[in-house]
Amino acid sequence: MLTDSKYEDIVKNSACILISGKRKSGKDYMTRLILRRCYEAQLITTVLHLSFPIKSHFASTHGLDLAELLTDGPYKERYRKQMVAWGEQELDRDPYIFTRQCLNQAIASTHSSSIPDVFIVADCRRSADLSYFVDIFKRSNCILIRLCASNEVRANRGWIYTPSIDDEETECGLDNVTDWDYVLNNDSSDATHKEFVDWLMAKITSIKA
């Protein structure tokens, strides 16, 4: 695998949380919840969105509003299929193009004395996404999280089944993964969320020990 081995020593003491889930499963919400707890624990934390390079390029070349593309609103959904198609073309040439760009940017924006304690990858969608970060951070420092929500709950959050989106790799590429560290039923339960985040913070502490 062609990865950025130059970063292995830099992040050797960092935890990497890899979050996966289908559309409207609550990835952004859980990312914010985890981020808040990390800040409360005074852990230097950075969030990586693998979709950002796709949206940034797509917005600049098509004259679109990047800020709107970064939301969960109807504006993004209007262009989702086109963005996915362009992203797949790029990934066919280099499966790690967006993971590499995100990690490069995250590390370039930090000072050598303040490498994040925790990296949160908020939107893993493909096996190559997981393998890239596991290769660099090592499996023992990675926490693989799968968010699940019923179709009914997802629909209440605005999800509408869309052919050529919901049946493509961006939504189904990790369906057969079995070695998640935690599978969270994210149908909305504060008690369930607290139990999960408490477990996660303990896991991060054990990695940082």
TrEMBL record:
<keyword id="KW-0067">ATP-binding</keyword>
<comment type="pathway">
    <text>Isoprenoid biosynthesis; isopentenyl diphosphate biosynthesis via mevalonate pathway; isopentenyl diphosphate from (R)-mevalonate: step 2/3.</text>
</comment>
<dbReference type="GO" id="GO:0006695">
    <property type="term" value="P:cholesterol biosynthetic process"/>
</dbReference>
<dbReference type="GO" id="GO:0005829">
    <property type="term" value="C:cytosol"/>
</dbReference>
<protein>
    <recommendedName>
        <fullName>Phosphomevalonate kinase</fullName>
        <ecNumber>2.7.4.2</ecNumber>
    </recommendedName>
</protein>
<keyword id="KW-0444">Lipid biosynthesis</keyword>
<keyword id="KW-1207">Sterol metabolism</keyword>
<keyword id="KW-0443">Lipid metabolism</keyword>
<dbReference type="GO" id="GO:0004631">
    <property type="term" value="F:phosphomevalonate kinase activity"/>
</dbReference>
<feature type="binding site">
    <location>
        <position position="186"/>
    </location>
    <ligand>
        <name>substrate</name>
    </ligand>
</feature>
<keyword id="KW-0418">Kinase</keyword>
<keyword id="KW-0152">Cholesterol biosynthesis</keyword>
<keyword id="KW-0753">Steroid metabolism</keyword>
<keyword id="KW-0752">Steroid biosynthesis</keyword>
<dbReference type="Pfam" id="PF04275">
    <property type="entry name" value="P-mevalo_kinase"/>
</dbReference>
<feature type="binding site">
    <location>
        <begin position="22"/>
        <end position="28"/>
    </location>
    <ligand>
        <name>ATP</name>
    </ligand>
</feature>
<dbReference type="GO" id="GO:0005524">
    <property type="term" value="F:ATP binding"/>
</dbReference>
<dbReference type="InterPro" id="IPR005919">
    <property type="entry name" value="Pmev_kin_anim"/>
</dbReference>
<feature type="binding site">
    <location>
        <position position="157"/>
    </location>
    <ligand>
        <name>ATP</name>
    </ligand>
</feature>
<dbReference type="GO" id="GO:0019287">
    <property type="term" value="P:isopentenyl diphosphate biosynthetic process, mevalonate pathway"/>
</dbReference>
<keyword id="KW-0153">Cholesterol metabolism</keyword>
<keyword id="KW-0963">Cytoplasm</keyword>
<keyword id="KW-0756">Sterol biosynthesis</keyword>
<keyword id="KW-0808">Transferase</keyword>
<dbReference type="InterPro" id="IPR027417">
    <property type="entry name" value="P-loop_NTPase"/>
</dbReference>
<keyword id="KW-0547">Nucleotide-binding</keyword>
